[in-house]
Design brief:
Peroxisomal Thiolase, Chain A, domain 1, alpha+beta, 11 helices, binds acetyl coenzyme *A, globular
């Protein structure tokens, strides 16, 4: 065991609540369709004046306060996001300055979709171990700003938010017992945003085509891969840590879709009450979804001291990651 753990965690969601009925004013959809396919009822939408760093800052401050760690004690910053403040430099640079951190290494983990936060947690644990560092990890997403509001296939799925955790060595911290992660790059085509990169740079033609915010995905393939990979990586992380599934008190899966969560629950043979979900109220918040769920689990009394907690996530890439934590 490494002795590295989560010292504290926190989250932030914008105040505007958007319901399924609200969406039906923008696209041809219904509460019935969205609820039956995804389990989502509401999501949060950032205010016009808010940007990614504003959300990240609030979550980071909440995590620092929860950990009882001052900004000057942070030795490294990792921001997991696919909806950055600007294209370059990374969101972490803006956040380092905003929080008034020392001139520490700060970098983004981008492009790994909704697996970002758990991947960053794995990385932070290694850095905390090798550098004796206290690492601030943030998962933040403002998908409402970078999606096509006229594409009913995608717009209803997402929400905005941020979650953060402080990782380091301290007696009594929620110890990260093991992490696993993996990538299957043969599946890049099932979930991607092609525009803006070297393959399809921004251009006047692209803007006129209305496709520059398009997220391409094959929902059924994503569904299948998500269930397969989350199930396998949950089993792998337990094996790595020498624990059994029957010992797990709480599972915090990526909140993409209630039906995916139910399928993972079934494929692992878990009781539904062991698996936490808040997708109904927040939708899919990408890299922010796991820490947002963790905060909600604590607030609603589902997370107790001593619990063995399994986090599992998947995202574009296709990437997946799981972590086992003793709270
Ligand atoms: N409202 C009403 N109808 C809709 C909507 C909508 N918001 N969106 C799509 N439809 C229509 C489609 O146009 C299609 O109509 P057609 O048959 O006339 O062509 C019909 O509904 C069925 O569409 P399907 O894609 O077959 O619907 P499906 O049952 O597969 O559900 C969903 C779609 C919810 C996206 C599902 O595939 C899924 O859960 N996928 C996995 C999650 C996912 O992909 N999330 C986004 C990626 S981000 C991530 O999680 C990492």
């Amino acid at each position: 065991m490494s002795g590295i753990g989560i010292l504290g965690f926190g989250a932030y969601t914008p105040s505007r609540v958007m319901t399924n009925e609200d969406w039906s004013q923008y696209v041809d959809t219904s509460d019935e369709w969205i609820t039956s396919r995804t389990g989502i009822k509401t999501r949060r939408i950032a205010a016009a004046e808010e940007t990614t760093v504003d959300l990240a800052e609030q979550a980071a401050l909440a995590a620092l306060a929860d950990a009882g760690v001052a900004t000057e004690e942070i030795d490294e910053l990792i921001v997991a996001t696919d909806t950055p403040e600007v294209y370059m430099p990374d969101t972490a640079a803006f956040l380092q300055h905003r929080l008034g951190l020392r001139e520490v290494p700060a970098y983004d983990l981008g492009g790994s979709g909704c697996a970002g936060f758990v991947l960053a947690l794995d990385l932070a644990r290694s850095r905390a171990l090798s550098e004796n560092a206290t690492v601030l990890v943030v998962g933040v997403e403002m998908l409402s700003r970078l999606m096509d509001w006229s594409d009913r296939n995608t717009c209803v799925l997402f929400g905005d938010g941020a979650g953060a955790a402080v990782i380091g060595a301290r007696a009594g911290a929620a110890e990260i017992l093991a992490c696993v992660a993996g990538t299957d790059g043969s599946q890049t085509g099932i979930l991607q945003r092609e525009t803006g990169g070297t393959k399809k740079p921004f251009s006047k033609e692209l803007a006129e085509s209305g496709e520059f915010l398009k997220i391409d995905f094959n929902g059924r393939s994503v569904f299948k891969e998500a269930v397969r990979r989350m199930t396998a990586s949950a089993v792998a992380v337990l094996e790595k840590a020498g624990h059994q599934l029957s010992e797990v008190d709480l599972v915090i899966p990526h909140q993409a879709n209630l039906r995916i969560i139910q399928a993972v629950t079934k494929s692992l043979g878990l009781q539904p009450e062991t698996v936490f979900s808040n997708v109904e109220k927040l939708g899919n918040t990408g890299s922010a979804s796991v820490p947002l769920a963790l905060v909600d689990a604590r607030e609603c009394g589902s997370l107790h001291s001593g619990d063995l907690v399994l986090m599992t996530a998947f995202g574009a890439g296709f990437h997946w990651a799981s972590a086992l934590i003793r709270f």
